[in-house]
Amino acid sequence: SSGFFQANPVLDKNQYESDKGLQRTLRFFRPHSLSRTLESRAVKELTELGAEVVTPQTYEWVDEAERNPPFIVEQDTFGHPINKLVTSEGWRRLKDVAAVQGVVSTAFERRYAEYSRLVSFAKVYLFGPSSAMVSCPLAMTDGCAKLLEANGLTTPGMRRAFDHLTTRTPSRAWTSGQWMTERPGGSDVSRSETTAVKTRAGHDYYCLDGFKWFSSATDSQVSVMLAHRVDRKGNHLDGGKLSCFLGYVQDEDGKTSSVRLHRLKKKFGTTPLPTAEVQLTALKGELLGKPGQGVKTIATVLNVTRVYSSVSSLAFWRRALYIAKEYSLVRSVFGKKLYQLPAHVRVLASQEIQIRGHSFLSFYGAALLGREEVVPKDLTEQEKVLLRIIPGLSKISTCKRAVRGVSECMEALGGVGYLEHDVRMNIGKLLRDCQVNAIWEGTTNVLCDDAIRYISKDWKSVKKALIWFADNHLEDDETEFHVSARSELRVIVKDRLEKWIAKFESTPFPELQRDAR
Ligand code: MFK
Ligand code: FAD
Fold it and tell me: Using CA atoms, how far apart are residues 253 and 276, in angstroms rounded to an integer?
C-alpha cells in the first residue's frame, strides 16, 4: 500500500551509555576509595550489558517467553503423575544471560569492594525490562545468598547452595524462592500454617509440611521459607513464633518429590514468571538464624528484594521514557516533531526529573547494602537506621509512582503507545509488570505500618538520621536538573513522613470499623 508510514524510533541504543541519569547516580554514590581502574572496569561491564539488553536476540527471548507462558504437566501418557513445570526457552536463556552477566554474583564477588552492590543493582536496572521477569527469581536468589552468607555458611548444604546461587556459570547456576505467603496471610505472616519438625536421624534437618499460596521462583532449587517449629506431637515450640528455613526443593538428582505444584496463578502481568501454589510434604530443610526469630531472620532477604522491587520499577519507568523520547524524535504533528512542542517536552522532562529523584532513593538502598556487606564497621549509627527504613521507603515511593509514570509515557506515544505488536516498544507489558512491584514484598500500607512501628520505638534517632540524610544527600548544587531531582527526593521524604505520621495519629473510616464489629 502507499501513503504515509511512520519511521521507526531507534530502540537499540546502549541502555547504559544513553542513560545519563544512571551514570550520574552511580557517580554520586561512588566511594572515594574506588580506583579509576576499577571504575573503568565497572563501566565496561555495564556498557556490555547495556548493549546486550536491546539486541534482537534478547528481545526474541523476551517475546518468546511472553508468548509461551509456563504450564504444568500433570501426568505422562500412561497416567503416572509427573507434576512437572515447563517454562519457555526464552525464560531459560534469559536466566543464562543473568548468570553470565553476573547480575547477582557481582554483589558477592566484591570485585569493586563496597561499590559492588551499586554495580550489581545497576545490572538489575539494565537487565530488568529485558528479562521477562527473570529479575524476580534473581531478587530472591540474591536475598537468599546474602542471608546464607550473613549466617556464616554453617553447613555443607548451605555452602553448596551459596556456591550455586552466586556462580556465573549457567550450567551450575541455581535460583532461590522465598516462601512466606500462605492462604491465611501474606502481610500478617504470623498466621502461617506450615510446620517444621526435626527428623529422627540425629541430623539437624527438619521436615517441612504446609501449603505456600504464592511461589514465584517455582523452578528454583532451594527456597527460604517461614514455618512454625513443632514437636512430634504437633505442639508449637518457640511460643508460637515463626522460624526461618532453607528448604532443599530439588534433591541431588533435580527431583522435587516433596513439592507438589498445585496450580499456576492466572495473572494480570508477569506472564513468563511461574507463580504457583505449592504443597510441601516432608520437605528437607535447615534452620536459618535463631528458632522463633523467623521474621527477623528473613528480613535480611526482604531488605534486598525490596531494593530490587524499587530499582526494577525505576527501570521499567526509565525504559518507557526512553521509548517515548525516541518516538518524539521521529513523530511529526502540526508541522513539528514532538520534541519541538513545549507541552510534550514538559511531560517528558517531568518524568525524567521524577525518575532521577527516585533513582537517588533506590540506589541509596543499594549503597547502604554495599557498606553493610563490605565495610560494616564503618557504618554510622545514622546509616544503620537508614538501612532499616530506606528499602521500604524507596519501595513504597518508587513502585507506586512508576505505575503512573509508565502510564504517562504510554500516552506520550499516542495510540501506538497502547499497542503490543513490537516487544521492543511494548509499554503495556512494562505497565502490567510494574504494577505488581507495589504489591509483593509488602504492600504500601504494610510497609508504612512497619516504618511507623520502628519510628515510634525510637523517633529521636530516626529523626536524627533523616536530618543527616537530608544534609548529606539533599543539598542543592550542580545543574538545574540535579536541583530538581534533589527537591523531588525531598518531597518524597517529607510527603511520606507526613503521611506516616497522619496515619499514626488518626483512625480513618470509623463507620467501616463500626460495621466490622
Ligand atoms: C523485580 C523485583 C522482584 C522482587 C521479587 C518479588 C517476588 C515476590 C516475593 C514475595 O512477595 S515474598 C513475600 C513478601 N512478604 C512480605 O514482604 C510480608 C509483608 N509483611 C511485613 O513486612 C510485615 O511487617 C511483617 C511480616 C514483617 C510483620 O510480621 P510480625 O511478625 O508482626 O513482625 P514484626 O514484629 O513487625 O517484626 C519482627 C522483628 O523483625 C522486629 O524486630 P524486633 O523483634 O527486634 O523488634 C522487626 O523490627 C524486625 N523486622 C521486620 N521487618 C524488618 C525487620 N528488621 C529489619 N528489616 C525489616 N524490613
Ligand atoms: P493481605 O495481607 O490479605 O492484604 C490485603 C490488603 O490489606 C492489602 O491492601 C494490604 O495493604 C492491607 N493490609 C494488610 N495489613 C494491613 C495493615 N496492618 N494496615 C493497613 N492495611 C493493611 N509471596 C511469597 O511469599 N513468595 C512469592 O514468590 C510470591 N510471589 C508473588 C507473585 C505475585 C505475582 C503476586 C501478586 C504475589 C506474590 N506473593 C509472593 C505474595 C505477596 O507477597 C502478597 O500477596 C503480599 O505480601 C500481600 O499479602 P496478601 O495477598 O495476603 O494480602
Answer: 22
Q: Does residue 372 lie within any of the structural domains?
A: no
Other C-beta atoms closer than 10 Å to the C-beta of 138 total: 27
Which residue CA neighbors atom 9 of ligand 2 most closely? Answer: 443
Q: Which residue type occupies 474?
A: L
SS3 for 152? coil
Q: Is the CB of 441 under 6 A from ligand 1?
A: yes
Residue 39 lies in a domain: no
User: Helices (DSSP H) in 270-374: which residue ranges?
Assistant: 294-330, 342-374
Give a yes or no: residue 282 inside a domain: yes
Residue 267 belongs to domain with CATH number:
2.40.110.20
Residues paired with residue 244 on neighbouring β-strands, in sequence order = 226, 288
Q: Whose CA is nearest to atom 8 of ligand 1?
A: 440
> One digit per residue, pLDDT tens: the chain, 517 residues?
799 999 999 999 999 999 999 998 999 899 999 999 999 999 999 999 999 999 999 999 999 999 999 999 999 999 998 989 999 999 999 999 999 999 999 999 999 999 999 999 999 999 999 999 999 999 999 999 999 999 999 999 999 999 999 999 999 999 999 999 999 989 999 999 999 999 876 678 999 999 999 999 999 999 999 999 999 999 999 999 999 999 999 987 777 889 999 999 999 999 999 999 999 999 999 999 999 999 999 999 999 999 999 999 999 999 999 999 999 999 999 999 999 999 999 999 989 988 988 888 899 999 999 999 999 999 998 889 889 988 998 898 899 999 999 999 999 999 999 999 999 999 999 999 999 999 999 998 888 888 877 877 777 777 677 766 666 665 544 555 555 555 655 665 556 555 554 544 444 444 444 554 4
Contacts of 233 (CB under 8 A, 6+ apart): none
Proximal ligand: closest to the CA of 508: 2
Cell of 127: 537487565
Instruction: State in Å: Cα 471 to ligand 1 middle.
Output: 29
| Rounded CA separation 164/202 (Å) | 27
User: How many angstroms separate the CA atoms of 172 and 125, rounded?
Assistant: 24
Question: Hunting for cell 502461617 — which residue is that?
Answer: 192
Q: Rounded to an integer, what distance in angstroms lies between the CA atom of residue 181 and that of residue 283?
A: 17
**Is residue 181 domain-resident?**
yes
- The structural domain count of the chain equals 1
Q: What angle do CA 136, 440, 319 make, to 5 degrees?
A: 55
Strands 242-248 and 276-288: antiparallel
* Ligand 2 centroid – CA 187 distance (Å): 5
Residue 154 grid cell: 554453617
Domain hosting residue 260, numbered range: 176-291
Could you tell me if the CB of 442 is within 6 A of ligand 1?
Answer: yes
Our answer on whether the CB atom of 302 is closer than 6 Å to any ligand 1 atom is: yes
Rg for the chain (alpha carbons), in Å? 23
Residues 6+ apart with CB under 8 A from 270: 133, 136, 216, 432, 433, 436
